[in-house]
Amino acid sequence: MYRLLIIDDEEKIREGIANLFPWNNIGFEIAGEYSNGEDALEYIAAHPVDVVFTDICMPVMDGICLSSILMEKNIKVVYFSSYQNFEYAQSALRNQVVDYLVKPIKYDELVSCFERVKKMLDGERRFSSVSEQPAPDNAADETYYQAIIRTVTDYLKENYREAALEEAAALVSLSPSYLSRLFTEKTGRHFTDHLLQIRMEKALAMMKDISYRQYEIAYRIGYDNPKNFSRAFKAYYGVTPQEYRNNPGILNGRKKE
After folding, report:
1. Architecture label for domain 194-251
2. Which of 126, 236, 247, 248 is 20 to 30 Å apart from 145, CA to CA?
3. 102-127: per-residue pLDDT in tens?
4. What's the distance, CA 43 to chain centroid?
5. Cα torsion through 34, 61, 119, 106, rounded to 10
6. CATH H-level superfamily of 2-116
7. First to last CA, the chain
């Protein structure tokens, strides 16, 4: 279980979030509830915490100030607020906040958000366990890089619909630009090329099932616009999705490796 703090100056909201949502079912336990960022920081100084779910506008210390401090502690932060505010969104980007939810928080949005947080934490845990294994001195660097690449490729396989370089970089505690260069250097392929391959292979498998409509396949692999999916499919395989559907054997000898 990952340890979660809930922070809001309104007690009823804190209790509602803590008690009405099945946190344990998605891998989280409530470590504490606080009315401001300063009290939460005192707790964090003495106890392990993985995630902070915090309101933005609070007395003593607000969520923005708190998240700027937590950046250095590798603690995931999710904002929630009663207001859609551009400045809040900017602070979320600056402070590497995972998400920004607007009250009243919808159940499915909360589930989606914290499932994503859990995937990020799972990836970091896998990466940490591999990279901390002892290795001969002359192989230590390579073991470290292998752990990074394995974590990123696993992330892409599990999250190909919404995968993003920025999120992958956060998993392995690297900047997006450095991860991009490292991934290309170690695999011989760009991050986006690897993601495209996974998406196209998934698409090809689903195309064989006629119960899937083309727009459904597009959405399931990460394309909100079916036309973009069709263009990407043709650029990758040399035929359109419909041409493949009409003649599955058309790719014999043509499919990319």
Report:
1. Orthogonal Bundle (1.10)
2. 236
3. 888 888 889 989 988 888 888 777 66
4. 26
5. 70
6. Response regulator (3.40.50.2300)
7. 39
